Amino acid sequence: MDDEDPLRRPPEADAQEQRQDETVVGPPDTIADAVPEATEADLAEQGVLRPPSDATGLADAVRDDLTPADAVEQNQEIPIPDEDRRD
């Protein structure tokens, strides 16, 4: 009989994760580092623009032509799909 219980062994994914190099993430770029023709979406994607938060007033964070529903929608985080996952 096997002495090692398969339920107590760490999954192979854990072992693989332990062998990976650590990724160092630096501070976000500043607007001065951004490309001049970058759009607002590009800047947000690069982490240069900060999304509105609970601390800022939504009225100050959006354009004048947007509805309150648009303002709330812009303040929500968008979930990022897991790139390694395949449906």
Q: What's this entry about, in short?
A:
By secondary structure, this protein is an all-alpha fold. Helix content is 29%, strand content 0%.
How does this structure look, described?
The protein has 87 residues and is mostly helical. It is built from 4 helices and no strands. It is elongated. The protein has a domain at 28-74.
Q: What descriptors fit this protein?
A:
87 residues; mainly alpha
The computed structural class is mainly alpha
Please report the total strand number as a whole number: 0
User: What global shape is seen?
Assistant: elongated
Helix coverage percent of residues?
25-40%
Largest sheet: none
The count of helical stretches stands at 4
- What is the helix/strand order? HHHH
Termini, distance in Å? 38 Å
Region (Disordered): 1-87
Biased composition (Basic and acidic residues): 1-22
Task: Indicate the topology.
Layout: H1 12-19, H2 40-45, H3 58-61, H4 68-74
